[in-house]
Please model this.
Amino acid sequence: MYCSGCGRPESECDGACLRPLDIPRFCSECARKLDVQVTPQGYEATCRTHGEPAPKRL
Amino acid sequence: MRTSTLLDEARRAVLGGGRDLSLEELRGLASLPVEDVPSLAALAHEVRLDRCGPEVEVEGILSAKTGGCPEDCHFCSQSSKFETPVRPTGYLDMDQVLAAARETKELGASEFCIVMALRGPDERTIDNVIEATKVIQDETGLNVAASLGILTRDQAERLAAGGVHRYNHNLETSRSFFPEIVSTHTWDERFETCSMVRETGMELCCGALLGMGESTDQRIELLGQLREVGPTEVPLNFLNPRPGTPLGDRSVMEPLDAIRWIALFRLALPEVILRYAGGREVTLGELQAMGMTAGINALIVGNYLTTLGRQPLQDIKMLADLKMPIGALSKVI
Model:
């Protein structure tokens, strides 16, 4: 598994890379960069390999 | 000179005589001790109420084309020149843009800005933005703004004729500091697009980004340059350092320093719509309401282009608590 903030293995990152109000940018399964679309009230983050997770509403 | 004297003279100039403060006077106010920042903020709030009234303009923004930008703005995670976590995505379609405009309308906003990470738009992009503008206006009643980079005169005229109400193109920083931040285009190119926007009859939204390492003198220089370009709106951004960018390791501004500069922007530009924009949450934290009583009279609610904002209800409650009604300011001023 990988850190969704920086894409490094979880064992190498304590999660501090994900700053307040940042969005996950890396797939936690394969560490590829996510396709992210931010909208005024939410965002969608999708991995091209692992499909489309449900949209995350804030 | 003593703080009370500096503030009294500034009050007399702006509120009494309707005279613009000189850059030298602004430089004096910029060097007030930190314990006097609340007094400076109070004066700026008086000026805002006198010149603009209590209304606050609320806007939502959408990144309709993210990343892959050929420019090298050192603060920006959407530049293709830097290895950042942002993955480029294509242009959004009309349904997606309209859905975001509807989200914005739900937040009580009067303004919706379509933003694209580009050096400048091609003709198809201009066509699409004009079409989107009409659909959004018809479906939501929102004023539509656009931020598409450097324009040609023909493009600016087409956007104006197509109903784009306001065009955003930031100077970001002073002419003297700009080469430290961007090498792929010049400050003068930005200034030229800003001038052209005004000439076409669109309202100019021209903002600043503070905290990139510019000096106090360079911020004062920028205030003079903003006066020259004559914007209707000035969005005030504070650097939120982005991983992978050349400014990624910088610290955020001190909150009271940010309040000081909000106040100075209001005192330098008494009649503009001064909007809270990116970086306010991480910079100001608990002092966000103080910014609203230091000269700010507009804000972006909800999320930004690549980062999140705080919960919109927090902003709506803040405005209600401050007894600041939401309104469309270009109709007020």
Q: What stands out?
A: DSSP finds 13 helices and nine strands in chain B. The CA atoms of residues 105 and 242 of chain B lie 29 Å apart. Chain B touches chain A at residues 60-63, 66, 85-87, 89, 92, 96, 99-100, 103-104, 106-107, 243, 281-282, 301-312 (CB under 8 Å). The two ends of chain B are 34 Å apart (CA to CA).
